[in-house]
């Protein structure tokens, strides 16, 4: 607003008249801006920056050194030339006052720092820490620059700041970590400036881009004709669609009403001041230049339409003014800072004088040379900011309000510090089925430091299906567990870390009537086993006999095997079925490449003959074989007798394995129920602060 008022003092040119019209228009919107500022949440109502205590700050905060005074004079001289040559440009953010009311050049406010935390060695960790640790404050006026820029140490102390405070702190950490990072003063959309993400999809819900399938390079392959279609049927279908179109249009109109309202047109579009971070490619093996929004910590392309223009950028060594056209946003900008046509540097990085553009052609006179060429080579003073320090306790507990809530389109993300919740919960994502966020569809929770190694839980609110995910190292080798209740036989799916198991089991599903097991990497090539279970004896249940003494009867066991290339196909079993109650065993063998019908062997019980334990009775009546591709030995009765003997022994072992699987599932449910009832969190041996708290609690 101050910049717009200054233009009134100049003569009334057409451009000035336009600026006055814009000023009148902005005055009419002043009330809307006030309401907009009031709508931004704040954890400490009425927080006043002018009331903070600055008496303890070092002398560098309160005074300027001789070199800093010289720097400010050079900056003022640059601004005079800039405003003279570019009168239509907005003011630059060059030397605002700090918390002590002293003017400081923006480059000296940066304090490159590498904090002693592994995550902060990477840009993503730095961005996440800054956006989580600080509370966003809007600019006092969304279209004008702030009058002050506080030091990163003060911002960290009070854990709050505007976009420029966020940017300076984040850029200090990135430069300290070795990135070629710059603070950016520019313009962005209303949603980005006000941290409104209610129209965006939550990053945790975004699907990865689909990789297009490569076309078959063989152009000589046979192209089969498409399925023939009747033209008459197509005409009838089109007529039906025309008849149903009016009803569909009404339904679409109803859907449009229920949809989330699109954001209204922003009257301040292109005028809203914002600050963010620019990371150039090159250093730290960054492949492509990108932006970082300090409010969210998200990575953005330089062509993102949310960024509407750039006025200037700076790092801890220099300051550059953008001389490129931003009417199309930032997508066409060049970030080659060595290009003097695109970027006007404030202090020459060489011994050659800095040449600012002039309005008139060059003249070979000493006067114009003195005015046009000014020796701007200058060594930037060291930062006046004290060393940036973050304790381990502050790093582990970044949320000043206890937690952080982010609203997205049909989703809500909540974050907590580690050890803030007794169950280790650190993050929860709630997905809603409606735009008003009243009907929950799905909930995802993330955990840390749990001794049972649970790290994520998904809850489907429609089906009430719960899925727990575990890190490697659980005593029961659990990887995932899906259930609706921890009661036995209510439908459980368990996944294991199969490489740590001897039997190669990676998944098991069990309910009241069946059990299915899946295997990987077994020497016998078994990959699936399906068991059908019957109902328990109701009389024993009524008598109060427990499930251990009254097991479910095994009705049938099916096993499926992969092809063993070392065996002939007529000796390599593909499917094996044990009908335990009916006393039938059925074998199906694999097929060779040229075969069309699989070989089969069936052993049945003789009708009318009483079954005796451990008796093997074989005759032509109770054995059926169909092996068209096998040799004569497979039709020999002695061979079939030995095969039946082996299958009977296998059936005994399988029945015992089924009982062991049932017992294992019961043990898993008992252990999981105990773990959920007595949740314990582990503490790293390096976390001395947390261990001290635990010791004080036990004393």
Automatic annotation (TrEMBL):
Main location group: cytoplasm
Ranges of compositional bias, category Acidic residues: 243-258
CEP76/DRC7 peptidase-like domain segment(s): 273-346
Localisation per UniProt entry: Cytoplasm, Cytoskeleton, Flagellum axoneme
Biased composition (Basic and acidic residues): 360-372
Keyword terms of this UniProt record: Cell projection, Cilium, Coiled coil, Cytoplasm, Cytoskeleton, Differentiation, Flagellum, Spermatogenesis
Region (Disordered): 1-21, 233-261, 353-372
The UniProt record lists the keyword Coiled coil: yes
Stretches assigned to the Dynein regulatory complex subunit 7 MORN domain: 401-684
GO CC, any one term: motile cilium
InterPro entries: CEPT76/DRC7_peptidase-like_dom (IPR056290), DRC7/lobo (IPR033551), MORN_DRC7 (IPR056291), Papain-like_cys_pep_sf (IPR038765)
Record-level GO BP terms: cell differentiation; flagellated sperm motility; spermatogenesis
Entry similarity comment: Belongs to the DRC7 family.
Identification of the protein by name: Dynein regulatory complex subunit 7
